[in-house]
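Per reviewer request, we include the raw input and output of the structure prediction for the construct analysed in the revised manuscript.
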Amino acid sequence: MKNVLFATTALIATAGVASADVTVGGNAFMGVIYNAGDATTVASTDVAHSVRVTFGASVETDAGVTFGASSRITESNNGNNGQMEHGQVNMSSGGFTLRVGATHGAMRNTARVTTYLGFNRGGVVGNDNSTANTQTDGGNNVLVMYSMGDLTLAASTDAAGNAQEVGVAYTMNGFTLGLGANADNDAATDTEWMFKAGYNGGNYAANIGLNSDNDAVVTFSYDISDATALAIGAEFSTANGTTTTDYMGVQVSHDLGGASLVGTLGQNNSVTVAGLGVSFGF
């Protein structure tokens, strides 16, 4: 009798979600990271590993509106830090998209350029052209985007309504231009902006990102073969008329067929770093 009750309960519970698209995926890595150290930091060689499981689900209404949700669990170096995080709920119809929760704001979605290199989700060398108060997917934001062909318009706010962002991006014949700006209700905070320009030539791509903090990010990638790719990234900052190289690195990745072997060499604030490891998705 218990089995009949359990089976009946399961059927009732799943009847309303029979048309839902539920996915479980993720990625993992393992490898070695070297830090040469400097006058204040001792040189070190560390073994790193991590597993990230991502959960997603979506349904489509009779009117053609799609609702979705996603979240993830990340466990790194057996730190027992695995917990549900970065949850967001979204809806889309035609070119319109609404996202609520752990979502990047309008500036990052339209004008971000990243230099993240490394087998460990880009953690060996990396930064981007985000400004100090840019909304990130670690926050609680409301994002609205509308795409009309090659043009994308975006607007966002934090859930408390204290800071707003707007952005626009346009792509044509491989070229992409993006511009974003924000406004904060704190009158002491100046308006920040981000700018992106890039070109995708198929087997190679180049991007430059600028911002109101006087930072410049430059990236270049090239597919050496069907299995091997080269990536280069650097970030520069300017203060009082002096330009400093904050981050720079070069990476070679090779597709092993289901996994990638990734080697990275670079500098973080003049400290030499390197990484060698394997990453894969599932």
